[in-house]
Amino acid sequence: MKILEIPLFREIQACEFAEMEHQHCMRRQKYEKTEQIFRAGDHIEEIGIVLSGSVIIENIDFWGHKSILSYLGPGQVFAETYALCREPMMVDVLSAELSEVLFLNLQVLLDQKNRGHSWYLKILHNLLQISVHKNLMLSHRIFCTTPKNVRGRLLTYLSAQAVKNGSMEFTIPFTRQQMADYLNLDRSALSKELCRMRDEGLLTFYKNRFTLIQLNQP
After folding, report:
1. In terms of CB atoms within 10 Å, which end of the chain has fewer, N or C?
2. Cβ–Cβ contacts within 10 Å for residue 38, how many?
3. Are 53 and 98 in contact, with CB atoms under 8 Å apart?
4. 136 and 129 in contact (C-beta within 8 Å)?
5. What is the pTM of this model?
């Protein structure tokens, strides 16, 4: 993905980006699959931007129960709230596959001395837009985990994916275990319910590819 196509840099010109680079606030790093990027408890000043591959944001409680909060692909930003608020991380961030991340030090970039630069307000505006979108993503996960039973959570999640993709056939970004972690379900229970739904003619699936079937109404 080209740098200036990343949402955070929307409307930033090449010359403006060069000015930002001169602040010495950027660095790139590659990560292997499952490699840790940030850990819960870290105090950070940098945000991460996925250049290639993907990352997973997850929470592991005191008893070792894992919940996947989000999955981020190229162009998406993570850890911006912690970098801005200077609060310790409450989540872990790890690479879901071989990935490259661009780190941006907000404390340096958004220093008051830079307010006169033409890119300053653009970055603030883009950060606000990204934060609003993140709130929508978190709201979506709340909707998906609200139903008390396994089928209810699956129906909510898969229906939302169909709407998002504009098609009854779509690919989700999760493995079975990751899907179970995202929906706060036991993997075995999730797999059994998917098989029941398939046998009832509600859907078909192969790995992470799903097709929802509209039943004829009487």
Report:
1. C
2. 20
3. yes
4. no
5. 0.79
